[in-house]
Design a protein that fits this description.
This protein is α+β, with helices and mostly antiparallel strands. The protein is about 35% helix and about 25% strand. Helix 4 (about 95-110) packs across helix 6.
């Protein structure tokens, strides 16, 4: 397949995303910095494509929907298009989706699945269900579990972005029963 058949979607800090319209497939290529490559080669951290697949498998076990992974290599990923709507667009007037988001975040917290980008743009809605995307940014627990406080600090920052959604953070903290949240 030539690059002419691919539609450029976005470029990130260390990745590019293209869309193959004929196959309805997103293709993500990663170009990590040398230090990150060292961490991947030595096994300190899994490479982004490999990590995406591991996270997708773990979230699926937790009952969280994810895109179908077609190809996962260390620096290359293909996933089927979910063909959903961004959660952020539907959230303000939909208490059911708000609760589903709260429940999903509580599940991640309780199972020590860490991510700095849990804002509502990183979730799609398809057939009334949430689908987590951008899974290469997630970290699964390894030898040490991630700090719950750090998780909540990152979550609070994510929900206080360009479209403030602090009310969700407050509901999550209340659901978790945390009285001294950041």
């Amino acid at each position: 397949m030539s690059n002419q058949e691919l539609e450029f979607i976005q470029s990130g800090k260390y990745s590019d995303v293209h869309y193959d319209r004929a196959r309805k497939v997103f293709i993500k290529t990663f170009t990590p910095k040398a230090f990150d490559r060292f961490r991947y080669i030595t096994g300190i951290r899994p490479a982004p494509g490999t990590n995406f697949l591991k996270v997708a498998q773990r979230l699926t076990l937790l009952g969280i929907k994810v895109p179908e992974v077609l190809v996962a290599r260390p620096y290359y990923l293909e996933m089927r298009d979910v063909e959903g709507v961004q959660l952020r667009e539907l959230l303000p007037d939909n208490p059911d989706l708000q609760q589903k988001y709260v429940d999903l975040i509580v599940t991640l917290y309780r199972h020590h699945v860490y991510c700095r980008g849990l804002h509502t743009k990183n979730f799609l809605v398809k057939d009334g269900e949430l689908v987590a995307i951008d899974l290469d940014a997630y970290k699964l627990p390894r030898l040490l579990k991630y700090s719950g406080r750090d998780f909540l600090e990152k979550l609070k920052r994510s929900l206080n972005g360009e479209v403030p959604e602090n009310y969700l953070y407050l509901r999550i903290v209340k659901t978790l029963g945390i009285t001294d949240a950041p």
